[in-house]
Amino acid sequence: MILGRRRRSAPAELPTLAQARPAGEFVAGVLSHLRTVVDVGWNLLDVDAEAHRLIREAGATSCYIDYHPVFGASPFGHVICTSVNEGVLHGRPYDRVLEDGDLLSLDFAVEVEGWVADSCLTIALGTPREEDLQLIRDTEQVMWAGIDQVTAGATVGDIGFAVMNEATTLGYSINDRFGGHGVGRTMHEAPFVPNRGTPGGGVELVAGQLITVEPFLVPTTSDLEVDPRDGWTQLSADGSRGAHAEHTLQVTDGAPVILTARADDPSPRSSLG
User: Fold this and answer.
1) Residues 6+ apart with CB under 8 A from 264
2) Which of 4, 122, 152, 227 has its CA 20 to 30 A from that of 38?
């Protein structure tokens, strides 16, 4: 979607940093934990059970388990997206044991103390393929290109243009059906934060609002198909592998606060927020 004229639209309610931070820290901590413990031999259902255990222990609330958007065949029924190899987005956990060389994306959103955070990372299991590691690095680089545009007064078109431009420079094409979004009291709020845009176009960001930047890349195609087995998982159209990255940010008058920054993130910017 190419965004047009700039529009200003502030959320109805803006959290303070102190209000927004607990959800971000919890999501970041769970993803860091899963990146450490999940390995070859784990079942996707066990990954979901581990995330569910941590949610219960923290008194948090899953944003996924009852989620039933128009693009899902049924309520999601799980607390984390586990997308494997050619499963690029919205992977619904099922009875599958992870194998050496698998590429796994973990997308996780919860509400803590009334506010939501949402984040995703991709990991290569066992003996990784170099091309998978490069795909992960490229996807994170594209995400940071979008994050670099986030400041009060910028627009979602600025973010989309930066994501698209960085991806194109690295040799990828962009699927713009899905992307980042506002978060707040619920997981998906306005504005849509596209992975394609025009500078100065679309909704203008305001200080205090929460958004995500969320690119996903496949080396050989931008087309996705819904897996008919679950009505949820978005598969690459040609069977090639995909990677996915996402952070939740709070907009400020300067650089954004990365609410879901992970201490074990290899990115040099992991200390932000």
Assistant:
1) 32, 35, 36, 270
2) 227
Instruction: Give the number of domains in the chain.
Output: 1
Burial 193-215, CB ≥16 within 10 A → b, else e: bbbbbbbebbbbbeebbbbbbbb
In a domain, residue 59? The reply is yes
pLDDT per position as a tens digit, 108-117: 999 999 999 9
Confidence bin at 10 (pLDDT 50/70/90) = low
Inside any domain, residue 152: yes
- In the chain, what's the furthest Cα-to-Cα distance? 50
Q: Is residue 205 domain-resident? A: yes
Please write the tens of the pLDDT for every residue from 116-158: 999 999 999 999 999 999 999 999 999 999 999 999 999 999 9
The answer as to whether 45 is a domain residue is yes
Can you give the CATH number for the domain in which 67 is found?
Answer: 3.90.230.10
**Is residue 250 within 8 Å of 183, Cβ to Cβ?**
no
pLDDT of 1 > 90? The answer is: no
